Amino acid sequence: MNNGLWGPDKAAFDDVYNLADPAAYWQKLAPLDYVTPEIAAGFYRSLLGSLAVARGRGSLKLIDLCSGYGALPMMLNHDLQPGTLHRLYTDPKRAALPTDTARVDYDRNMLQRRKAAAQHRIAGVDVADKALGYSRAAGLIERAFIEDLEAAAPSEALAEWASDTDVIVEAGGVGYVGEASISKLISASETGRKPWVLSMPVRTVDTSGVEEMLADYGYVVERSSKTFRHRRFRDSSEQEAALTRLGEFGIDAGGAEIDGFYRCRLLVARPSAEAAAWPIDALLPAA
Predict the structure, then answer these.
(1) Beta bridge mates, 261
(2) pLDDT tens digit string along 54-85?
(3) Which of 30, 105, 124, 186 has an alpha carbon 20 to 30 Å from 220's alpha carbon atom?
(4) Nearest to 6 by CA among 203, 182, 141
């Protein structure tokens, strides 16, 4: 699960990324303090709220790329405290339940009590069929599209969903997918109705191809001045590889990755007219 944009020596989580139950995935990531879905969701919810008001709607239609177990949809459509993802999937009471079905019911019941006021319609896109199956069963996504957009065109059903999608979101997935996936979804959108693209790429990922593609489609791409924690490095070799990679990009990691964490940045891409109408500093003064 590394298409080359990440660089060498990155830890792999393939063995736990596509299971019927997310618990093993989150248990493996727990010591690494993986927080990107939670951080991204805080910014995304603010931007989605502004866009919904501007378009006169209470909720929006989204595509979540590299959706996996639905962590980002969970945080977008529910009022949850930081750390909820780790607490839920490492909860001994949940673990003691006898079947995957019982655990899905447990999750659905918990989430039902914490629904946010705005309920965005979210489709998950990933190659991980079991992970998407969990997300759909738990009510985190409305539609599940098991597709590899890096290698193939979107299905007719996904293209139809993308035709009037308001926003494409992802949180740490760029590097596993790139401009091929995003461009195919944008190409499927209706004329004059291009979706916003909200991304939280890790700084060791080369996003130049994605940004150039977005510019070719008439988007204005804006990045946060601040960096945010993604997860801890697995070990010193992963950290050294990341620091070397940043040096190749001409990025000074002082005060950031040297603290033992991968860092990510918020990337917001919007059609030029909307970017001019709604300055990003007014929408996200803290970014």
Answers:
(1) 232
(2) 888 889 999 999 999 999 999 999 999 989 99
(3) 124
(4) 203
Which domains does the chain possess?
A: 15-228+264-276 (3.40.50.150)
Which of 154, 158, 120 has the alpha carbon at shortest distance from 140? 120
For residue 105 the two structure tokens come to 């019911």
Cβ atoms 63, 185 nearer than 8 A: yes
Confidence of residue 159 (pLDDT cuts 50, 70, 90): very high
142: its two tokens: 């409305």
3-state secondary structure of 145: strand
Q: What φ, ψ does residue 180 adopt, rounded to 5°?
A: -60, -50
Contacts of 63 (CB under 8 A, 6+ apart): 122, 123, 125, 161, 162, 165, 167, 168, 169, 185, 195
Tokens, residue 38 = 């939670």
3-state secondary structure the chain: CCCCCCCCCCCCCHHHHCCCCCHHHHHHHHHHCCCHHHHHHHHHHHHHHHHHHHCCCCCCEEEEECCCCCHHHHHHHECCCCCHHHHHHCCHHHHCCCCHHHHHHHHHHHHHCCECCCCCEEEEEECCHHHHHHHHHCCCCCEEEECCCCCCCCCHHHHHHHHCCCEEECCCCECCECHHHHHHHHHCCCCCCCCEEEECCECCCCCHHHHHHHHHCCEEEEECCCCEEEEECCCHHHHHHHHHHHHHCCCCCCCCHHHCEEEECCEEEEEHHHHHHCCHHHHCCCC
CA contacts within 13 A on the Cβ side of 276: 5
